[in-house]
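Minutes, project check-in

Agenda point 3 was the complex the collaborators sent over. CS summarized: two entities, 588 residues total, and the question is how they sit relative to each other. Sequences were read into the notes so everyone works from the same version.
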Amino acid sequence: MALSLRVSFWATLLSLPLGVFVAYALARWQFWGKHLLNGLVHLPLILPPVVTGYLLLLTFGRKGLVGQFLDDWFGIVLAFRWTGAVLAAAVMAFPLMVRAIRLAIEAVDPKLEEAASTLGAPRLWVFATVTLPLILPGIVAGAILAFAKAMGEFGATITFVSNIPGQTQTLPSAIYAFLQVPGGDGQAFRLVVVAIVVAMAALLLAEWVSRAIAKRISGR
Amino acid sequence: MTLSIALQHRFGDFALQAAFEAPPGVTALFGRSGSGKSTVVNAVAGLLRPDQGRIALGGRVLFDSDARVNLPPHRRRMGYVFQDARLFRHLNVRQNLSYGRWFAGTAGDAGDLGRIADLLGIGALLDRRPGTLSGGERQRVAIGRAILSRPQMLLMDEPLAALDEPRKAEILPYLERLRDELSLPILYVSHSVAEVARLATSIVLLEAGRVVTAGPATQVMADPAMAPVMGLREAGALISARVVAHEADGLTRLDSAGGPLWLPRLGARPGDRLRLRILAQDVMLATARPDGISALNILSTVVEDIRLGDGPGALVRLRLGDEALLARITRRSVEALGLQPGKAVFAVLKSVFVAQDSVGADAGAAPT
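CS then shared the predicted structure for the full assembly.
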């Protein structure tokens, strides 16, 4: 349980900056390969999670291209570790996060950003002082969605990092494991209740934060 | 500081080819919608990259397609006031006003903010949110925000077009104060002749992407060839006059190059110079000084140019010292009076508008 929260937290936090960047690029820039990037981001949403997990294992596994490099240079191993679960959850949650943030960015009038630039603000400043505050509700919504998705991630996680108790056994994997053994229903049910409570609390919190921010930036 | 512009830009069927200079003061970029005014202003601000050309302010090159110079908007130091105020709704009025000052290196200079807020009458709004302001207030905050970014020039793209008449009347005096109290050149886009007459020191007339004429406001406004572009009802010359005295019966006497004028008591002091706008359709012509007529204001002038229209009308330009007056009469009258260049005539003025007033009193029609 604590592991699940930790995995989801880091998955959300670490993918957030990249999510905002990709969402901004997709919403505002015209560049070669834009459709390709868009497709790539959305792929985990459409592919069977097992496939995504297997692909992660191929790339980030000990013998994988990136995995070997990380191990040799930084001593970082992802496969069959909780950090790998973070990566799997982040990849699976990324499309949802990007979609929510992209919608928020597209709702910001570029004319406001133009106005800021005529007032002397360099591009990054315009983003930090105008765009970012205005899309904050979208970012919060995207982060909560991603967190919820990460909490529920199962297929890619179990393929990539397996189901090692205390190491990589997230909430869904634990429920699955309990259901595999005779008489495990009771414990599985307890975890199901926990999952529902956590999910509900996250949703309510998201709603409340979004509303508070939206009120602050409505200009009234 | 003079802004020099030479541009070529094409999008779709529309081709813009404009070259002109905007001398210090208020240069009005005048033309119908779709004539390319906003394109020119956006190119000056750096929000649009023209296909070809050169834009320079004083000695500073902002854009030069040959030399491959194209400064980004934030380095051009152009204060831009948009038609839709474009205030940052997540910031309050004070933060909106201060926004540009972060980058102008004057963040600590709070006295400036107070002075500009006073000048624009927004001192009481500083802690409000943009969403709670009226359209006129919003536009005044937008103007203040642009000025406080310490620009080298102000660009105003129809800043009053989105407002109703009372709101316009609320802002115009502030714009006049800006023009008179800050020595900041202003490029002012408008399709309202009344606004242009009141604010402009020079006029650039744009039609279908081309500059039709450019020059001092008094000259352009008195050009009969320009009257159809401005709209015949709105056509009218600007003349200057000096306040002589406030007389006992409530009239103010002014002196113009064509003789004395009387207007209902003005706020101006004796000695002040005013700019008057006289609509072409409010001028009657007579070959002899009319007698037994209620009109007070009769100027002696000389016919300079006659332009016959397609219909029954004609526009006559009359010389008034080194200024000019414009009269719209019928072709029949031109023949009946035997008007031709060089002939001395009397202009009977049915009404006179105070277009610019050195003390900032409200403009209004003054029946005479």
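Noted in discussion: The interface with chain B takes residues 109, 111-112, 114-123, 125-126, 129-130, 133-134, 216-220 of chain A (CB under 8 Å).
Follow-up: revisit at the next meeting once the mutant set is ready.
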